[in-house]
Amino acid sequence: MVGIMIGARYLQNDFFLATRGFARHYTSNANATTVSVKEYLKEPAKLIAIPVTNKRIYIYHKHTSDILNDSSRIIRFERWINKKSARIWDKLNQSPKSYNKKIVSYVNRLLDNTPWTENSLKSIPGENYILKRVTTSSDKESHLTLAQFARSQTPLTSKPLSVYYPSKSMTRDSVLLELRKLCIAGMKYHKKQLWLCLLGLPLTLPVVLVPLIPNVPGFYLTYRAYSNFKALLGARHLQTILDDQTPPLTFRDVKGYSEIVSESNTITDSEDQASNSKERLILNERLMSRIVDVLEIQELKSDLEKVIRQERKRLQLEPETQPHPSHQDNVDTKRK
User: Where is this region: Disordered (predicted)?
Assistant: First the structure.
C-alpha cells in the first residue's frame, strides 16, 4: 500500500510541476465554435476537457461501441476476461463473510489511492482497439482497422476528432498543453508501474500454496498490471494523435457547458494569469453533477468523485493553498 501511495504522489507531483504554467492559458476564447448538445452527442468519438483546478484538467475519451475493433480476437478475449472478473468481484463484494468484506474494503482503499490521471488515460483506447474514421476521394466515410489504414493504396482523409472544452474558461492552447503533458507523464509513470507489478507477481506465488486463502495480492497485482498497460496504450495513442495529427483535432464548445463552468469559477483573469498564482479547486460535487448532466457522461461520475477527493486532499496538504471559496462549504461538510 505504501508503494502505491508513493507512486500516486509521484505522478501527481510530476504532473503538477509540469503544469505550473497552465494558469497563464486560462483566458477567454470567444472565437471557439459552439455546437448544440444534439450535434455533440451525434459524434461517435470525442475528447472532453473538464477543469479540475486552475492548473489541471481531466481528459475523457467518449466513444460509441460501434467504432471499436470487434474483429480482433485479442479485444474479444479481453472483454470476456473483464466480464468474468467483474462477476467474481461482484460475488466477493456481496459475500456476507467478514474476511471477504475486509478484503473488499482494503482493495477499494488501495484503488482509491491510484492517481486519477490513470482513469483519464484508460478512457483513451489503444490505437489497435479503435477503428479509423476516414473519407475516401468520393467523400464516403469508412471505418478501417489500423492495419487496413496502413495498407490502403487509395488516398484517405482522417475524420477530425473533436475536443470539447469550456471556451470561456480555457483556451485551445491550454488544452493542447495538458494533452501533451498527460501523455508524456503517463508514459513515464505507467511503464514503470507496469514493470513493478509484473516483477512483484512471482512473489505472491507462495500464497497459492496456502489452502482456503485466495491469492488476493496476486489478483491485485495482475489487475494493476492490466490497468497500467491500458493507461500506457492510451498515452501512446494520445501521443500519436498529437504528433501525427491522425486524426486531426478540432476544438469545440457545447451549448451551456462554458456557462456552468464560468458560474462556478469566480477567479479573476488577473489572479489566474499571475505566474505565482495559487492553485485553486474549481471542480466540486455540484459542478460535477451539472457537467455530467449537460454532457451526458453519467458513467464518469465515480471517476470525477475520485478526482475531487484526491485534489481536495492534495491541496489541503499545502498550507499556502486553500480550496476555492465557492467550495469551502463542501470542504467543511467533508471534514464533518
Answer: 313-336
For the chain, the farthest-separated pair of C-alpha atoms sits apart, in whole angstroms, at 66
**pTM of the shown model:** 0.80
Cα(68)–Cα(45) distance, rounded to whole angstroms? 10
Q: Side by side, which strands form the sheet with 141-144?
A: 141-144, 132-135, 157-158
Yes or no: say if 112 and 309 are a contact pair by the CB < 8 Å rule.
yes
Q: Which amino acid is at 185?
A: A
3-state secondary structure of 126: coil
Our measurement of the distance from residue 269's CA atom to the centroid of its chain's CA atoms, rounded to an integer in Å, reads 27
pLDDT of residue 166: 95
- Alpha-carbon distance values, 61 to 53, 64, 71, 234 (Å): 19, 10, 21, 10
HSE at residue 324, side-chain half, CA atoms within 13 A, is: 23
Strand bridging mode 161-164 / 249-254:
parallel
pLDDT of amino acid 22: 37
103 alpha-carbon distance from chain centroid: 26
Q: Which three cell numbers stand for residue 75?
A: 479485444
For residues 293 and 156, give the distance between their C-alpha atoms in angstroms, rounded to a whole number: 36
Domain residue ranges in the chain: 2-335
Preceding peptide of 247 cis, ω within 30°: yes
pLDDT at 31 (0 to 100): 62
Quick check: 172 and 251 in contact, CB under 8 A? yes
